[in-house]
Write a structure and sequence with these properties.
With 99 residues, this protein is α/β, with parallel strands linked by helices. The chain contains 3 helices and 6 strands; from the N terminus they run E-E-E-H-E-E-H-H-E. The longest helix has 16 residues, at 68-83.
């Protein structure tokens, strides 16, 4: 799963079915501050220090709807991230590398 911040400074989820990795990619010229502003504006999270903290609820909402297989796989991705310390204590945000 990737979150892309394009030149329009809007976050969009791409490759939502790929749940073995999570990253935030940005268009050329988009700064970390721009990413932070875009994520905050969409209610999608924050960015600082080379990482983004993404809202689990926002990511889930950007997925393929009520597909039970995807929902189960997404839950497993978040559980794995939690086991590595990549979520906040309440598992409301998950850390992603900012590329």
């Amino acid at each position: 799963m990737k979150v892309v911040i394009g030149a329009d400074r809007r976050p969009a989820v791409v490759e939502a079915e790929e749940l073995t990795s999570l990253s935030v990619e940005r268009a050329e010229g988009v700064t970390e501050a721009d990413v932070d502003t875009a994520l905050r504006g969409a209610g999608a999270g924050t960015a600082a220090d080379g990482h983004a903290w993404l809202s689990v609820a926002w990511l889930r909402g950007e997925g393929p709807g009520v597909d039970p297989q995807w929902t189960e796989a997404f839950g497993k991705m978040i559980a794995y991230a939690a086991s590595k310390g990549w979520t906040d204590p309440r598992q409301e945000s998950v850390r992603a590398h900012l590329a």
